[in-house]
Amino acid sequence: MAVKSRTPDDAFHPDDSYRMVLERLTELEGRNQELREELRQSKTDRQYLETQKVRYEREVRKLRSEIEQMRSPPLIVGTIADVIDNTRVVVRSSAGPKFLVRTSQFINAEDLKPGVRCTMNQQTLAIVEVLPSAYDAQVYGMEVESRPGESYSDIGGLQRQVAELREAIELPLKKPHLFERVGILPPKGILLHGPPGTGKTLIAKAIAHNANATFIRMSGSELVHKFIGEGAQLVRELFQLAREKAPSIVFIDEIDAIGASRGQETSSGDREVHRTLMQLLAGMDGFESRGDVKIIGATNRIDILDMALLRPGRFDRIIEIPLPDVEGRFSILKIHTKRITLADDVDLKKVAGITEGKNGADLAAICMEAGMCAIREERTAVTQDDFEKAARKVTLDFERNRMTYSSGTGTMFA
User: Fold this and answer.
1) How confident is the model at residue 409 (pLDDT cuts 50, 70, 90)?
2) Residue 101 near residue 119, CB atoms below 8 Å
């Protein structure tokens, strides 16, 4: 076989070899860059997995600790009766008997006081933990968390009464140095009395809105309980909570429910109410100092209150909230008609003149009825005639209900 000889054009050119090497090098550099990126991503994934591992291990330890706590036997709740020294105390268990036990080294010796609740080990009865003071759930519900929307601008015709109340309640909290400079103690108790619907509770709401203090409100009937000692205990815990959260204001509405004059008790219920009253008297001005705690009482029947409740030291100021006069009714009407669309013929002074003997609640009802008259006729503004009709309607409804009640009561006891 004849072999074809290579021509000069078929010879391998050096540029081709260089180009092939360069392409191969570029390919290897690209692959190297890809591998570096994969290595970096692998390191990032490894760090993330290690972090997740640590977090899961921490959660596992926490869950195991909770499981161990659930498996551990419950602790006994007791009360410290006497403190011997920093390591030994006399406790009374929930079952009744007393024991001399030792305390844990992790408990602060200053927290060991007679009357303090504590938890004890079931086997050794050693004190494990000091518990905080316990209050009735009803006491916690009496504390006002959110401030009411009413303010002093919503009160009409009681400028003198509001001024006396503010200087007795707010001034000692905002400017106590004035009382120290003069050398007197500020009033600690205010009693508001007057006919129903004159604004006693409204004033208390305005104080809760403006006072920079803890406001605790309650009704006198809430202190009346069935079993012996429950009402007195509730009063004691109420004042203890007020002292802990001082400066504080305690508002007792319808205080005549427990503050009636003490006489000849006819039943065990009357005696229990009087026990609650005596605890209230002791809390207001007893052996223990009340601290920076102000008390505001409200009642419609000051004539039946016990004289021990009315003396200075308990209620230093007794403020009457009377029925509003013409100017007072005009101020109240301006407040209630602030958001009402009035016609041009409306004369509030004339309305105030025809509502003689009406209280603030009656005036609010008259404004509502006047608005209902306009809505009934599908009008967008309230006229003077609407107010006059509303005043007559509210008066007639009140008289009719009073006559019905009187006749019904007479029939019942005939």
Assistant:
1) very low
2) no
Residue 390 token pair: 């509303």
Identify whether the C-beta of residue 321 lies closer than 8 Å to the C-beta of residue 199: yes
Alpha-carbon distance of 57 to 53, in angstroms, equals 6
**What pLDDT shows up at residue 165?**
86
- Alpha-carbon distances of 296 from 97, 191, 204, rounded to whole Å: 42, 6, 8
Q: Identify the residue whose tokens are 């180009």.
A: 19
Q: Report CA torsion sign: 173, 178, 183, 189.
A: negative
* Of the candidates 112, 28, 39, 27, the residue with the CA atom closest to the CA atom of residue 78: 112
More confident residue, 69 or 209: 209
Which one, of 223, 212, 209, lies nearest residue 297 by Cα? 223
CA 46 – CA 119 distance, rounded (Å): 47
Please, what is the end-to-end C-alpha distance for the chain in angstroms?
A: 152
Q: 190 near 316, Cβ under 8 Å?
A: yes
Tell me how crowded residue 107 is: count the other CB atoms within 10 A of its CB.
17
